[in-house]
Amino acid sequence: MRRFDERDIPFARFAYEPDSSAYEDYYTRHPERLERDLHIRSLPQLCSEGTMTWNPLMSPAADAIFKFLGDINTLSEQPVLKEVPLEAAPELLTRKIKALAKHLGVQDVGIARLKDEHLYTHRGRKPEHYGEPVHLDHGFAIAFTIEMDEDMIDRSPQLEEIIETSTGYLKAGIGGMILSYWLRELGYEARNHMDGNYLLIAPLVAQEAGLGEIGRMGLLTTRKSGPRVRLGIVTTNAVLIPDVRDPFGLMDFCEICGKCQKTCPGKAIPDEKNAFHDGIPYWKIDHENCYERWRSLGTDCGICLSTCPFSHKITFPESGTFEGLPEAIQQALAESEEKYGMRRYIREPLDLMK
């Protein structure tokens, strides 16, 4: 399967300083992106003055979280602390990993065999690693979800949303750190993949680990909380017991629903499937439109997270899947519409913001 280059994602591109070697290299190879990127670069940064949601007292809260994550993500890779790994049966080690992850506050946790197509081709986020080919010899990945607060996300795109999403990244980053530090104490190699320091595409790994499916908006959607989750991934050379995928008909549901496409303020989510990956059609998000709206709003928007019916515990058919069941999809959508209309939106500011 085709792999993706981290240098192409907006979070990487817009961090390249003009006149830096990364900037020169990237736009020499992709001159077609320069004009659009220059426009987006001219907009205010997230959580900064000049954006629609700027609050001089509370906007720096999300910034503080991301800066802290930036300080600790250099700890994602550390040396193993025992020459000989502790002998543990894969079944036992898998069970203990899941138990510790649950104790650390994750919503769900699964194990995936790490595949080549899960990895980026090259690194792009950190200047010191720009352009390095990605190689990772770990055989397994521990994937977990962190649920984000429903009321906070349902205030999207207001400031509460980015405070909650940044908090989700914080919890995922710290949980992954503890798991990876513990595995290295046992003598296994382990790497925490967290905000600002990924070698892989987290939603692909989480889908492989049975935590959900990827639908129209390009995010992992779970049974319990829909896309209202953040993801954590730890890879390791320890031998574990992989979980199986858990399909529940999300692609069929998204074909009929389309709410995220209708409510997206950046028109970044397509109406029709517009791309192919290894011969399979899918909805390809316009990441530039999405990110440009973020820079205007001052938050990472989140309207699609709030709009998705799966974010609000919809009723599944008895079979546990919507695949091939258009009537069940229409019924679930009707129930969601009756409760929340197009989407559940809380206008009243949270006490934190008053």
Automatic annotation (TrEMBL):
PANTHER family assigned to the protein according to its UniProt record, in alphabetical order: IRON-SULFUR CLUSTER-BINDING PROTEIN, IRON-SULFUR CLUSTER-BINDING PROTEIN-RELATED
Gene Ontology molecular function: iron-sulfur cluster binding; metal ion binding
Protein name: 4Fe-4S dicluster domain-containing protein
Family annotation (InterPro entries): 4Fe4S_Fe-S-bd, 4Fe4S_Fe_S_CS
Pfam families, A to Z: Fer4_7 (PF12838)
Domain 4Fe-4S ferredoxin-type: 245-274
Metal-binding among keywords: yes
Gene3D superfamilies: 3.30.70.20
Organism: Acidaminobacter hydrogenoformans DSM 2784
Keywords: Iron, Iron-sulfur, Metal-binding
SUPFAM superfamilies hit by this protein: 4Fe-4S ferredoxins
